[in-house]
Every structure is written in structure tokens, then in C-alpha cells.
Amino acid sequence: MGRIDILTIGGLILGFAAIIISMVLGGSVGLYWNIPSVFITVVGSFAAVLISYDMRQIKSVIQTTRHAMSTPVADPMVIIDIFTELAKKARREGLLGLEDDIGRLEDPFYQKGLRMMVDALDPELIRDILETDIEYTARRHELGQSVFRTWGSLSPAFGMIGTLIGLIAMLAKLDDPNAIGPGMAVALITTFYGTIMANLVFIPMANKLSLRSTDEILIKEIILEGIIAIQSGMNPRILEEKLVSFLSPTFQQQRQQREGNAIA
């Protein structure tokens, strides 16, 4: 279970605050509130999302939203340290000696992989099973992202539909010059709502889910390679160097600095 992601929450709050402050400075917040516009933009775009996906996929939105609002607990450098220790222990006690380490991490992927290794399954079979797990995890993540991206693409469209409805209603009252200005304002509000929904909520949420997916897949790939390397009897130092190669240059530099401080 991840920690609350301050950047996601803070970004949403800051974005809405900037919009509301601009409304206040520009006149009155009440000018930007229109219930029919909210209905056509929010409910209309959600109805289109319902048409685009099935109920199981829609329910997953709640879980994916929670995933976007949290930061992953797993640290790749900690995972590498664990596998380096496991490799040393396997050399001393054999693979069966790692049975007590299966519960060392709460990650089900780690536990499944380590259990299969302790049970002496064929390395190619272990790789095939774990790679299939990674592949379908990525697919599930892509589904959650696609729901938000679809909703983000539909919101401005329904904003335009609301604008067209408002313009039609306004044109029907051209004989009343006093109604043209307010009618035009109401017509444009739906486009305003749709743009905010797409660009401040749904598309950024999909981007954050994509980032979370990349981080999670990286951890799984490190675990996979660590398990196969230990089973093959790889030297712990070589294993560590291999797993470190998965990290970005920034992470690698941080690791080198940490090792240098430990030596000092």
C-alpha cells in the first residue's frame, strides 16, 4: 500500500485554486456556475465512457484512481540490496535456505518468484511465468490509463455540445437583445467545464498512472532478473552490478554516493 502522493493532491488543489482565484478577480464565482452545463459535461461524458467500456473496466477506475493518488513504497535500491543479500545467503546455505525469506517483502510477485525458485522449478519456466505476470500487469495498467484518456478526450467534446445547445437557445431569443449576452456566457461555460475536466483532472491522472506503471514494472523486472541470477549461482557482486544497470543514471549516482559514505 503506497503513501499519499503529495504532488498529485497538491497539483489538483493548486490548479483549482488558480482557476477559482482567477474567477474571483475577474468578477464573481457565481457567473461560472451553471447546473445544466455541469450536467451535460460531466454526466454526458461519463455516459460516453460507459458506452466505451464494460462494467468491470469501469469499476477498476476507483482502484486506478487510488493508485494515482499514492506513491509506491518499493525502492529499487532496497530491492537490489535484498537480492544481493539473498545471493550471499544462497551461496552459504543453498536455495532451500531462502525459504524463510519468502515473506521478507509483502510483494506477491516477489513471493511467487522466490517460492518457485526454492521449489527448484526450471529457470525458463520461472521466467515465462513471471514475464507473463509482468505483461498482464502492464495491460491492466494500460486499461486504467485508457479510461482516463478516453474521458479526457470526451469532456471537451461534450463541452462543445453544451455550447451548441446554449447557442441554439440564445439564437431563439434574438428578439430580446438583453438575453444575448447572458445566453452567450452560459453557452461558453460548458466548454470551460470540459476543458478543465480534461486538462486538469483526466489527462494528468492518466499520465500519473503511466508513471506509476513504469515504476512498478521496473521493480518487477529487477525481481525477475534477481531470482534468475540467484538460481543460476551468479556471484553476488556481479548480480548487484547487473541489477543496478536497471536504474536510471540518477539512481546509480545516488547509490554510488551512498556506498562511498558507507565506506567513509
Defining key terms:
mainly alpha; 264 residues; 9 helices; 2% strand; two-stranded antiparallel sheet
In percent terms, what proportion of residues is strand? under 5%
Question: Kindly, what is the distance between the CA atoms of the first and last residues, rounded to a whole number of angstroms?
Answer: 35 Å
Largest beta sheet: what is the strand line-up? Answer: 1-2
Helix content: over 70%
Major beta sheet summary? 2 strands, antiparallel
Number of distinct beta strands: 2
Q: What is the chain-wise order of helices and strands?
A: EHHHEHHHHHH
**Count of DSSP-assigned helices:** 9
User: In total, how many domains does the architecture comprise?
Assistant: 1
Radius of gyration: 26 Å
The mean pLDDT is 85
Uncertain residue segments: none
Which structural class do the helices and strands define? mainly alpha
* Morphology call: elongated
Question: Mind explaining what this structure looks like?
Answer:
The chain has one domain (3-76, 125-259). The longest helix is centred in the C-terminal third of the chain and has 52 residues, at 180-231. Helix content is 78%, strand content 2%. The model has no long low-confidence stretch (mean pLDDT 85). The relative contact order is 0.15. The chain has 264 residues and is an all-alpha fold. It has helices spanning 6-26, 35-52, 55-68, 76-93, 108-118, 123-171, 180-231, 236-244, 249-263; strands spanning 3-4, 70-71. A two-stranded antiparallel ribbon has the order 1-2.
